[in-house]
Amino acid sequence: MPLPPAGPDDVLAAVREFVDRIDAFDPDAPSQGELALRLAGQEAELTLRAPVARALVAALRAYHDPRDRGRCEHCNGRRLDDNFLCQDCGRPNGVFGQLLAERAARYTPPAEFPPPPA
According to the lineage, what is the superkingdom (predicted)? Predict the structure, then answer.
């Protein structure tokens, strides 16, 4: 499932809301610095306190893109399609990819229907 599009307003609002949500738990924590975001002419400068910085790092590291199907065991590429075929080397990946390739190789299309009588 593709991710919904995010415009500059969405990105800035999401980061601002994240910072505010986490910062509310410890507003007196020491500041780690400022985070400046500039997108499509819009700008936001946010203070990152230690708990917010830790939460932001954890959230970014924990994110898993739904399109990420791992690495190809043949070429180590990162572009596996929905059928576990590597878009870099063209080989099926893993046991499931190999099973799909073998099944596809044995496929025979059904016989065609005769044309309808005139």
Answer: Bacteria
Rounded Cα–Cα distance for residues 60 and 78 (Å): 19
DSSP SS3 for 9: helix
- Is residue 97 within 8 A of residue 87, CB to CB? The reply is no
9, pLDDT greater than 80? yes
Residue 50 contacts residue 29 (beta carbons within 8 Å): yes
- Cα dihedral value 11, 62, 85, 106, nearest 10: -120
The pLDDT tens digits of the residues spanning 39-90 come to 888 888 999 999 999 999 999 999 998 888 889 999 999 999 888 889 999 9
Nearest to 75 by CA among 89, 87, 85: 89
* pTM of the model as a whole: 0.65
The residues pairing with 44 across neighbouring beta strands, listed in sequence order, are: 37
* Confidence grade of residue 104 (pLDDT, cut at 50, 70, 90): confident
